[in-house]
Amino acid sequence: MRIAGQVSIDDIPKICPLVSRAANPQYGERGTRVVDVAGVRFGGKRPIVIGGPCAVESHAQTVGLAHAVKRAGADMLRGGAYKPRTSPHDFQGSGLEGLCILSIAREETGLPIVTEVMDPRMVGQVAEVADMLQVGSRNMHNYALLAEVGRAGKPILLKRGMSASLCEWLGAAEYIAKQGNLDIVLCERGIRGFPSGEYSRYVLDLNVIPAAKMLTFLPVVVDPSHATGVSAMVEPASRAALEMGSHGLLIEVADLTFGEPKCDGLQAIDAATLARIVSFAREKTGVKNQESAVRSTEETKPTSALNATLALSS
Ligand code: PEP
Ligand code: MN
User: Fold this and answer.
1) Eight-state DSSP code of residue 196
2) Can you give the pLDDT of all 314 residues of the chain as single tens digits?
3) Residue with CA at minimum distance from ligand 1 atom 6
4) Ligand 1 pocket, 189 CB below 6 A?
5) 49, 85 contact by CB (below 8 A)
6) What are residue 77's DSSP bridge partners?
7) Would the CB of 226 count as within 6 Å of ligand 1?
8) Cα-Cα-Cα-Cα dihedral sign, residues 138, 47, 81, 121
9) Which of 11, 116, 209, 259 is 20 to 30 A from 165 in CA distance terms?
10) Which atom of ligand 1 is closest in space to residue 162's alpha carbon?
C-alpha cells in the first residue's frame, strides 16, 4: 500500500539532491563537506566543541562565561539573544542588547559566535553579529526562515525538529541549500519519545548520527544539553555522541556566581566539566575524522554501495 506524503530514505536523493550523498558522488561513501566558521572547521580533523549560556542575560554573565569557555579550550561561543519559549510570558531573550553583548564577547575572546534567529525579518540583524546562524528545533519546519537564512551568506547550524524524521531534517537542509548555501551543520538535539520528561527532557537519538552521515555529506553535531535536560547526563552523553561519530558538540554552560540562569539552568554544566569534555573530544582527533577531512574535496568513489549498507530502510 502506498500512502500520500510518506517518504523513505530511498527517496532522499530525489527529495534532497543538493545535500544527499548519493546525488553527490564527489563525496564518496564517507567524505564530509568541511564547513568553515571563522576558521573553526566542522567536519575537519577533530570534533568541534561549542559552549556558552542558553541565553544572553547580561554583559557580565555572557562575557564572563565566554572567557571561561575559552579557558576550557572550546572552539566557539553559543548564546541566544532571541529565545523560543513555551510561554510568551517567560523571558524572551535580551534581543538587540544581547547581540551587542555577543559581539563584545567575541572581541574579548576571539571565539566565533553561534546564535539563534527565529524570525525571517530579523535574519539581517542577527547575521551582522553571528558567525553562524542557529535555526532552532521549533523552527526547523519554518520554510520561509530556512530560505531567508540560506540567503544570509553565513554558515547555518540546523537543529533537528524534536519530532522530525531524518528525511524531514534533510529536507529542511535542502531548503537552505537551494538558496546557494551549502555551509550547513546538522545538530541532533533529542527527540520526543516515551517516557520523555520522566528521567530526561528528550531522547538523545544517537542512532541518527551514523544514519545521517550515510545519507548526507554535511557535518553532524550533537547538543547533549537539550537532549538530556540533566546536567549530570551531559558529559556521558557527549562521550557517547563522539563515539557514534559526531563531528562536534553544542553545550550549555552556566556560572552560578552570576545567579540562577533564566532558562535551562538544570541542564547547564560548569566550566570544569566543559574542560573535561574538550579534553576527551581532543583525544578523538583520530583516524575516523581525519579520514573524512582528507576525503572531503577529492573523493570520487561511486556511492552505489551506499544503499546496500543502508539496511535501515528495510
Ligand atoms: C537552544 O539551543 O538554546 C535551543 C533553544 O535549542 P532547541 O532549539 O534545540 O530547543
Ligand atoms: Mn537552552
Assistant:
1) T
2) 889 988 888 999 999 999 999 999 999 999 999 999 999 999 999 999 999 999 999 999 999 999 999 999 999 999 999 999 999 999 999 999 999 999 999 999 999 999 999 999 999 999 999 999 999 999 999 999 999 999 999 999 999 999 999 999 999 999 999 999 999 999 999 999 987 789 999 999 999 999 999 999 999 999 999 999 999 999 999 999 999 999 999 999 999 999 999 999 999 999 999 999 999 999 987 544 444 443 444 333 333 334 434 433 33
3) 136
4) yes
5) no
6) 51, 113
7) yes
8) negative
9) 116
10) 9
Ligand 1 atom closest to 78 (CA):
2
Nearest to 177 by CA among 237, 217, 234: 217
Only one residue has cell 535580551, namely 94
Q: How far is the CA of 226 from the centre of ligand 1 (A)?
A: 7
Q: Kindly state if the Cβ of 124 falls inside 6 Å of ligand 1.
A: no
Strand partners, 40: 37
pTM for the predicted model, two decimal places: 0.92
Q: Whose CA is nearest to atom 10 of ligand 1?
A: 137
Per the listing, cell 540533566 goes with: 230
Grid coordinates of 118:
527565529
Find all residues with CB under 8 Å of 159, minimum gap 6, and list them.
Answer: 134, 135, 136, 137, 140, 187, 189, 223
**Cβ(122)–Cβ(135) below 8 Å:** no
Q: Is 137 in the pocket of ligand 1 (CB under 6 A)?
A: yes
CA of 28 to the centre of ligand 2 (A): 36
Q: Which of 202, 226, 262, 264 to mutate to test the pocket of ligand 1 (most atoms within 8 A of CB)?
A: 226
For 233-291, give the secondary structure using H, E and C.
HHHHHHHHHHHCCCCEEEEEECCHHHCCCCCCHHHCECHHHHHHHHHHHHHCCCHHHHH
Amino acid at 204: L
